[in-house]
Input
Amino acid sequence: MASRPVLAAELALVALTGVAGAVLAPQLPVVGLPLAASALGWLSYRFGYLPAALGALLVTGAATAIYGSLGAAAIVGPAVLAAGPLTAWALTRWSGVRVASVLGIVLFALAMIPIAVEAYTAGVSVSGLIGGVVKPIVDEAVESALVQQPGNVQQIKQVGETFVRYAEQLWPSSVLVWFGLPAAFVVPVVARAGAALGRAVNRPPVLPDLDLSIHLVWPVIAGLALLAAASFTGRPEGLLWAVGANLLLAVRPMLFLQGAADFAALYRKANVGRIGRAFGYALLAASEIVVPSISVLGVVDLFANLRRLPRAGGPPPAEASV
Output
């Protein structure tokens, strides 16, 4: 009897976390999906996958009621189901990195379904749909900027047109990163819930030991080749450029993680505390926004294995230099 209030408190916290995550998932998936997954993952390992699936339906219903639109259910329901009980199930069978990779692709596909349906219903391409959504926002920003700087009419309008054009061309990588990247956060929180409950789960490696597949270099090579071909054809922003740029932007977050892992290994070797590491990671993210230096380091690490981590088919690891 003494354990009943504790269980009730746990269930209440799980319910609140799940609903909060489901509400945030459509607009801020990198926060909402890990929140919902932490609750549904706990339910999966504590009570089973079927109760967790029922929990996914309940938090989806709550989010739909809060949004007041059935469209929210089409977005939230499959996403939290994949991030929660399906991820919990997969982690008992596959490696954490593999689960994160598959989940990222699944979340991207789920995000594309309502976008494609809306474009088809409107009778436009996905690029046209994205442009139609972005253009009014950009036009409003341009008008505001013209009020502040009336002497730079041509430059400001050109910037606005360029932004809309890039939005229409780079939407595949944008959607993939926005909805696929949360998988990198979902898998660790679900695995942690399983480990805390004593379940045998395949936890992803900690950041200093993270070593992604060497096959990530192929999208980089293809993307750079397409950008070079676009410049030679005299259409620097045509189809070849769009495909090449999307390839590079899609793989960039994973290359950033590979490069950040090198710094994480340095922090661990230097016994840097949590606050220092958090500050260091924030600086890495800020620098990556300006110049893709960390992702370039990630490419180098894929080839050179700077941390001398053991790799399949490779020689025995030497003493780590990073």
Summary: The radius of gyration is 22 Å.
